[in-house]
Please model this.
Amino acid sequence: MIKASWGIYSKEYLALLLNFAPNDKPDEKARRDFIKKRLNSGSVIEIGLGYQHLKTDFFGLISIQFQRFSISGTANELITNLDLEGQFSDLLLLENLIKNSILLRPFYNEKILHPIIDLTQLQFALGKTFRFESLPRISISALFSYNFNIANSVNIESNSFIGQTIIDLFVNPTLEKSSDLNFGSLNYPSLTLQLNYSFW
Model:
């Protein structure tokens, strides 16, 4: 069987998934907790191949998921909370720029940014479909799956030249390295119930 689907993630569900992100070290936990507080809703596109046993309706599935969500915060908040030890960007240079430029200061401290985070995940799933004789087009599937993160990226843009300069030099490097640390090993199990409708 071939599976193609699109769905929406609530920020509460995304926050739950982040419990599987690395948090052994104090800086890992602090970054994860900040991201959880600043999450926005997201979406997922899934494409997969599988096999379903027609008599028992048990099935196995391998799929690729493209997950997208965003977080919110000023450049100051993002850098301060995600680069706790100043290891991702030149914070001394940033401090001097902000201190000496009245044009950079408002953008850095006040402009709310919405970085988009994309995760590509490989999913292995086993499940069973339950059908209703009185409603032949409708069924419910229960599946247990395990997701492995195989790639992640961050995208953020500004309409102003000054803002884009701050983003390119300081915000993006911080977000990219933080994303690698927080999502690079985001592997997790899940149990899902799906309501299905067949058009034929």
The chain has a mean pLDDT of 89.
